[in-house]
Amino acid sequence: MSQTTGGQRHLKNTGGNPQPENGRSPIYSHNPLEGGAFPLLVLDVARQVCTPSNEGFRVLHWHEEVQFIRVLQGVIQTRVYEEEIEVHAGDCLFINRMVPHKTIEKEDCRYHSFIIPEQMLGFFPGSIMEKKDVKSFLYHPGFTHFLIKKAEPSHSAALNELKTLDNLYFSSSQKTKPHYEYLLSTSLVSLWLAFISALPPLPMAAAAPSREHLRIRELLTYLHSHYRENLSVESIAVAAHISKTECLRCFHRYVGESPYQYLIKYRLHMSEALLKDTELSVTEISSETGFASASSYIRYFRRWYGCTPKEYRTAQKNSSSSAD
Length: 324
Prior knowledge:
Layout: E1 9-11, E2 41-46, E3 49-51, E4 66-73, E5 75-80, E6 83-88, E7 92-95, E8 101-105, E9 110-116, H1 128-138, E10 143-148, H2 156-170, H3 172-175, H4 180-198, H5 211-225, H6 233-239, H7 244-254, H8 259-277, H9 282-288, H10 294-305, H11 309-323
Helix pairs in contact: 2-4, 5-7, 6-7, 9-10
């Protein structure tokens, strides 16, 4: 299925998981709670600010966890491979594990992202529930995303469960009650059951792997691993054993911009964390993130963020101080 409408599952030729360099690829958006006692990650995004900050915010990325994006206000636009999906207030977008995607705000909006490790859905490793009701969906090579719409009656149960989870997670009074994590866990599996119950049957045989989907992930993995270097379109193309023309075509189709445009935005994105979390100078950060000069870095940063790196750092520190 290639069109996004309520009630449709979206089937793409994903071609298996991307292979990270050295066991882990920088294109992953890593869950900072991974390996902890309660690894549910929830992001609150309002007016283009993500709390807590996350390395995958507003850039093309993928992660091991499944994701439910609940739009509370306005409209978001999410790109999944070459498809652009609009999600309106009251609706929710499910994104499967290991699926490259990028979400931006189409209007002034607010949304919550629930990023859920699969082990929180299957009760215990090796269970029949894990095999039949979790892995059969998460590891289906064609199941990439699903739009859950408030206008679709069959989706109401899943949306209601998501609302319950949302209220439970963001309620300060609930967090002080006994068994809070247990309540969240049962809410998660209730959401999952309502969601998979609303899905039409998966096809018995998955489509063959898509060479292009593998290719764009290979290109992105290389770019994210080597963004500090002096890259050219030619060098990026060589890494994927394709021509410059094919590299440009692949980026425009699946990313929506040229390799150079994406590289600049990714360098800027990586510089954000250095501005917020380190005391490196602007000149040092420009060099660390691959810019030819500090003046070039400042020029691009101002164009994309509407302020200088120094102004951004000051604003972040003031915001942090106010929160304390």
